[in-house]
């Protein structure tokens, strides 16, 4: 999405290049040095044109009003679109856009399923970006609530070496790691099915698809995770012990980078696409 600031700079750079033949790189602009009186003032008004807030920094203004915006979105949802404690898709098709008249203006919002850990809910969001991020997590949770756990299958099919690698992981409880693998597997299947869905009929088809494919997908992900943990364990073992001061900072940097690669929740966080890259990244150290 092009921001007003980005659009302005695009035009300035184009015009300066036309006038002088010099290309001004984007990171050369030092907008923080522009005097306040030369900056645009953003003003948010409510009913009766009453000013709710104003400022020079649009992002800061949005952050300040985020809770207020959420209250407004919930307030206009007067037909029960926002819900909690849902365990099945029982609400028909979910609209991708929601609009309500409030006084002299319209309030636009973007509904999405939200992950409530033991259930899902429906919540209105201010932007499509927030909506889509929440919707993915909400669909994942709803699928996990309605599909048999693949843990038994994983125990039967996973080689003993891989089981041992998972059970000796240093990043929390093994069941949390397995749940992480399962969530990653669901993400992979949602993506391979086509991504986000909004219709009840499509959700039921997605649920059937995930139920049929999840076991084998999770086994493959768990094998990758075991390989990653084994390599990281070997690297950490080599880093232990007395260290010469000349390499201490380098080793500290390696440990920090490993911690960015492997941490509680790393499987879902990195996603199935990046898992295959992690062993090669760790070998670089």
Protein architecture, described:
The protein has 285 residues and is α+β, with helices and mostly antiparallel strands. The chain folds into two domains: 42-128, no CATH class; 148-282, no CATH class. It has helices spanning 4-20, 58-76, 128-146, 151-157, 160-167, 174-193, 200-239, 245-261, 266-270, 272-275, 278-283, and strands at residues 42-45, 51-55, 83-86, 98-102, 105-115, 120-125. The longest helix is centred in the C-terminal third of the chain and has 40 residues, at 200-239. The radius of gyration is 25 Å and the shape is flat. The two termini are 37 Å apart. The relative contact order is 0.07. The mean pLDDT is 83.
Strand order of the largest sheet: 3-6-5-4
- Compute the number of structural domains: 2
Task: Count every helix, treating DSSP H or I runs of 4 or more residues as helices.
Answer: 11
Helix-strand category: alpha+beta
Largest sheet: 4 strands, antiparallel
The pLDDT mean sits at 83
Strand content: 5-15%
Which bin fits the share of residues in helices? 55-70%
Q: Quick one: overall form?
A: flat
Low-confidence stretches: none
Write down the secondary-structure element order.
Answer: HEEHEEEEHHHHHHHHH
Our Rg estimate from Cα atoms comes to 25 Å
- What is the rounded distance between the termini? 37 Å
Oligomeric form = single chain
Please give the number of β-strands. 6
What are its keywords?
single chain, 285 residues, alpha+beta, 2 domains, four-stranded antiparallel sheet, two-stranded antiparallel ribbon, 11 helices, flat, ATP-dependent RNA helicase HrpA, HrpA_C, helicase activity, hydrolase
